[in-house]
Amino acid sequence: MSLSLDGIRIVSLAEQYPGPYATLLLADMGADVILVERPGGGDPARQFPAFHAALNRNKRSVALDLKTEAGRQALRDLVGGADVLMEGFRPGTMERLGFGYDAMAALNPRLVYVSISGFGQTGPYRDRPAHDISYQAVAGFLFRHAETGSTANPGEVAVGDLSSGMFAALGTLAALFERTRTGRGKHVDVSMTDGLVSWMSVMIGPALNGVPIADIGAEPAYGLFRCADGKLLSLSIAHEDWFWRPFCSLIGMDDAAALTRGERVAQTQALTRRIADIMATRDRDAWGAALDAAGIPWGPVNGLAEAADDPHFRARGLFRRVDGSDGGTRWHVAQPLVFSGERPGPQRDAPRLGEHTEEILAPLAGTSTNG
């Protein structure tokens, strides 16, 4: 298939999670992503092989020692012919290495330069070290914890890393598109916390304006319920009377079918207990069939293995197997976007450290390889 980003070269020094996720999306769409890694260890995420492999398929790897002039010159040669440079260091690090935006824009005026950091390139927190849970905390993502004093772990999905990866990919594409009009690249400043604040717009916006948030999740049939077989299902009737009424008819709560949203919210605890008791009377598969037949919004609460084997995802081709660099094969979660019925990538497994150093650097004049 024709790939949207064929011919676009991205040089990435961004490690671990946000940058690799951004370049994963872009590589699947045809970009030639070159990972610049330190010799001997590479991306620290390589210590977790399955994690690293999941994020770095369809990419190539060059090992360069940026503490040497030969390594720095090799990177300059790469950047000189690149469309995008992506980095994920703390603000100021690239400048100290001699690869800040101004220097790279002078070398290659068409370069789109993407910087991903926890708090952005400016502001009082720019130099603060942190990881995902702290980004969530600062951005108000854990506002219920703040209200209740809860210290419960918010979960294992690194939403700050992932959201910033998506914003980095979006910013890259926007800057490349603008370059078609101006002929010049731009510096894209991606802050993990800014991205989370953006995701919180419908909650922080009301706070800015002194009005309450829309508490859609207060509905009694919006939550998780245990079935007779011990499996969990989700119900997601948010505010819709047209779902609530047939749901009540289905589960034998006809006396509650005419309740308005306001009345349901006022009786949430009692109604939720009634629903929970009823859900516990049948197995999840039986409820699933009944809910589907009645057109009620629901979903099974899948474990990881169940999600990997879900017939809907399998039917949509969301999982692909490719040849591994070790001679075997490896399954990957495919690109989630489908273009005119075709889903791009993955084509090949994650590269070994420095696997493509000679292949990439040899054609570049004045380049010294550092494998």
What attributes characterize this protein structure?
single chain; about 375 residues; alpha/beta; Rossmann fold; formyl-coa transferase, domain 3; 2 domains; six-stranded parallel beta sheet; three-stranded antiparallel beta sheet; 17 helices; 11 strands; about 40% helix; elongated; disordered C terminus; transferase; CoA-Trfase_fam_III
Spatial gap, N to C terminus:
33 Å
Strand content: 5-15%
In the CATH scheme, what's the topology name of the largest domain? Rossmann fold
CATH superfamily label of the largest domain: Crotonobetainyl-coa:carnitine coa-transferase, domain 1
Q: What is the chain-wise order of helices and strands? A: EHEHEHEHHEHHHEHHEEHHHHEHHEEH
- Helix fraction, binned, reads 40-55%
The number of helical segments is 17
Number of strands: 11
Rounded to the nearest angstrom, the radius of gyration is: 25 Å
Structural class: alpha/beta
Contiguous low-pLDDT stretches (5 residues minimum) are 367-371
Q: What would you call the shape?
A: elongated
Overall average residue pLDDT: 94
CATH architecture heading of the largest domain: 3-Layer(aba) Sandwich
How many structural domains? 2
Structure in words:
This protein has 371 residues and is α/β, with parallel strands linked by helices. It folds into two domains: 9-203 and 317-366, Rossmann fold, CATH 3.40.50; 216-303, formyl-coa transferase, domain 3 (2-Layer Sandwich), CATH 3.30.1540.10. Helices cover 40% and strands 14% of the residues. The protein is built from 17 helices and eleven strands. A six-stranded parallel β-sheet has the order 3-2-1-4-5-6, with helices on both faces. A three-stranded antiparallel β-sheet has the order 7-8-9, with helices on one face. Strands 10-11 form a two-stranded antiparallel ribbon. Helix 1 (18-28) packs across helix 8. The longest helix has 24 residues, at 159-182. Keywords: Transferase.
